[in-house]
Amino acid sequence: MGALNSTLADPNRRAQPAKHRRSTNATPAPEPEFAHLVDQLAVVYRAIEELVPYANNARTHSERQIAKIAASIRSVGFVNPILTDADGGVVAGHGRLEAAKRLGMA
Description:
Blueprint: H1 2-8, H2 63-76, E1 83-84, E2 90-92, H3 94-102
Antiparallel strand pairs: 1-2
Helix pairs in contact: 2-3
């Protein structure tokens, strides 16, 4: 761990020129075994009432986390959508869903 910190803080280490840096905004290409699914993905707007949280979701959010998520949604909107299966079951985004409910979004 100390070696990592000293490497990052090394004043003699030069940054790569901008033309050689990998863009952090680039969307990675899908893995070949999932490439056929790309055409099936879509953004679909649904009413909150249509979304069903997964009952056995391992990730829980504290009241403070939900409040922070709600503040972020209020400030910049939904940057990262809630992911659902075809039946409206929430796969990822339980915290965002709870925050949206508290904001009274429809």
